């Protein structure tokens, strides 16, 4: 039986596993559904990672690389291309993938490090047509940075979260025209440095207190109608203007990926790495959305230590 | 020359193809879109109505009741997702309570089983999340919900297994009479047929007018919906209707077969048959009206809005008849609600009309009347272990929200009516239907489609023709180009 199973091999999972190893656990398994470790960092090829933790400005893959190297000095096991489909309160992990087919793996402790997902179009309730050409910013980032394909040429970005801002710059550098970044709130959602470096430096207009009120186009997006909103975030009639575009990127919020614990009836308090199930811990963007990866790392090391302390104290009791 | 050409592969065309494929006939189905079920059949309430509201004696009344019985059998035989959930029709006033009484009598005349009017207390006991304002309700235990896409697909696949041919992206553009039948001009060459079934849905009047005097017109009337996350799915366990008006059955709140909650539709004339856009006003109306039945619905859990067009004709009933002066040309037109429910009965009636027109229907001995597919999500851990051990492709999860595996998508690609687009995969397998709406599995499904059809990534479609996902490769370093 494993002493610790970590679900998710992003920065949180990597640091959590390392933290547990450092504190004395030896049978540790990381389950990652992607082909490689590193999580969302693999597609973040811009710099800005590690300023606090490593006191250096690294790219996402470089930051992840440091931890992957560190793990190579340990005997922590990893199962790639493997998805955790279910967990139980008694710390069984159902996983499916190349390495061991479908398996039910018991563990003395579990750390949840599944990251977060992006808010999709539906929850925004924008009326109009439903053509191709609407992507979350992270999906577009994956297409460009990992797969090497452009999802569009004339882009409107809805929301000013960091992923959207980074993508405004990225798409511009790749030859697309970013026509507008539209934010419903009176101030930008992302970090100020990203607003400056990704919008201002490229003369991309940021429309604060605005939103997209209609999507037009039958096959591929043809227009986005942008309108001003009032204090109650309701569109102001008569302020709408149509922007000709073929692509809409959504950067309207990130949601912790906690379907696994929720389905098992495990409760999560966003301020606490402990869950309602003994021996089950949670960290990184799965716990709450972090702006900066360095904070994810620190929190995950703590989660690793907590799991180690849990397992080692159980051992003493045995 | 084939025996029958069916124009349109919505639920009605697919049901006709399935029904006729029992017989020794050559059948060709022409569908102008790149998939089946792309018209009204793709966007509706997905309810197999029990049949309490059509006017007794009408075609709609007879075919609804019969169709619903047949649908139940078909779901079992052909592995179509469905739920025997039952329905409640709510009354909020004395006047509406009288209406319930009328619906009850109507239903009894139409042969709908087990109808009862329930007092407020019993209604709220059954469905505690209904509005306290409810006065009484008609309970309709035989109402079902289905997956309309898979229903259509199952019929179409079975027809193909039994020898029918389905030509996608093949619009009928004109029809000329030839000795002993018709020549149908399509975007991709001509097809000659002894008989023709017009199941073109919103365009059935245009097809009719190709061979006969104009006899009816179809007016598209839009209905808009919310589809909510599975965490809203348990608010109610039955289909919740309000009292019907001239504008149909009104806004309902219903569980879907996949465990989501659906709310809609409104009733607003469309600009044209191709207008499927949702509107701010329409969605606001649906939200407000749905809350009258179920006040606590959390619309923030919306995962998708959509709209469908009803094929409303200038007749008060379905139009199921041979076109005037056109022997062997059968209209199945004006198939508004309850068309999804009535479809298999409509198909049987169409077969009867073809016989009357002189086509000989002889049963095949080897008709294959079953279909079964693997749904990883529904298997037990032990079944999953065995399946993945035998074929590792079933162990590779592609869609995280709905737990759809590579093996299941591969099976779809090798099926009799394979998907040609990302949404085609979604309709068949549910990948991309969940709360992240394909953000995660979209790129993976795209890759599988590109590999299967040996296409470049940029050629892969989201849905219909022209709906490309990717526009080009990113800039390349010229030094690396080979
Ligand atoms: C576009 C973008 C730009 C950013 N820019 C910066 C920046 O400039 N500077 C900075 O410091 N921070 C930045 N961040 C933030 C930082 O990258 C994140 O906070 C950090 O990656 C979160 O780490 P995580 O491990 O919690 O989640 P993730 O990196 O998302 O990792 C989660 C992992 O879990 C896996 N997983 C999920 N569910 C399962 C399952 N059921 N089974 C198996 N595996 C599963 C996923 O595949 C993934 O690999 C940025 C983030 C984004 C998205
Ligand atoms: C909002 C709404 C809610 C509804 N709710 C319900 C319900 O809950 N229960 C119920 O029983 N019914 C319901 N209905 C009715 C039901 O959806 C329809 O009756 C049914 O789908 C009609 O099927 P069809 O095959 O006739 O039409 P369609 O599904 O429209 O199929 C027609 C097909 O013909 C094709 N076609 C058109 N022209 C050509 C051409 N020239 N060449 C080749 N192909 C062509 C189209 O592409 C299309 O695929 C609802 C309808 C709507 C709009």
Quick tags:
heterodimer, A: about 325 residues, alpha/beta, FAD/NAD(P)-binding domain, 2 domains, 5-stranded parallel sheet, 21 strands, B: about 475 residues, alpha+beta, D-Amino Acid Oxidase, Chain A, domain 2, 3 domains, 8-stranded mixed sheet, 5-stranded antiparallel sheet, 12 helices, 23 strands, about 30% helix, globular, binds flavin-adenine dinucleotide
Please provide a written account of the structure.
Chain A has helices at residues 11-22, 60-72, 137-147, 162-173, 192-199, 259-263, 293-317; strands spanning 4-7, 28-31, 47-49, 58-59, 77-79, 82-87, 92-97, 101-106, 110-112, 116-118, 134-136, 149-150, 154-158, 177-182, 206-207, 210-216, 223-228, 241-244, 247-250, 254-256, 280-282. Chain A is built from seven helices and 21 strands. Chain A has two domains: 4-117 and 254-317, FAD/NAD(P)-binding domain, CATH 3.50.50.60; 120-250, FAD/NAD(P)-binding domain (3-Layer(bba) Sandwich), CATH 3.50.50. In chain A, the strands form six sheets. A five-stranded parallel beta sheet of chain A has the order 5-2-1-9-21, covered by helices on one side. In chain A, strands 11-19-13-14-15 form a five-stranded parallel beta sheet. Chain A is α/β, with parallel strands linked by helices and 318 residues long. Chain A is 27% helix and 27% strand. Chain A is elongated. In chain A, strand 16 (210-216) and strand 17 (223-228) form a beta hairpin. Chain B has helices at residues 11-20, 59-77, 94-109, 120-126, 148-161, 204-208, 280-293, 339-356, 381-390, 406-413, 422-429, 442-453; strands at residues 2-7, 27-30, 47-48, 82-83, 87-91, 116-119, 136-140, 144-146, 165-167, 172-178, 181-186, 189-198, 218-228, 239-242, 252-255, 261-264, 268-269, 302-313, 319-322, 329-333, 397-399, 404-405, 472-473. In chain B, the strands form five sheets. In chain B, strands 1, 2, 9, 10, 11, 12, 19 and 20 form an eight-stranded mixed beta sheet that branches. In chain B, strands 13, 15, 16, 17 and 18 form a five-stranded antiparallel beta sheet that branches. The interface between A and B is large, with 51 and 55 residues. Strand 12 (149-150) of chain A pairs antiparallel with strand 23 of chain B, so a sheet runs across the interface. Bound molecules: flavin-adenine dinucleotide (2 copies). Residues 7-13, 30-33, 38-41, 44-47, 49, 171-172, 199-203, 207, 223, 265, 308-310, 335-341 of chain B line the site of one flavin-adenine dinucleotide.
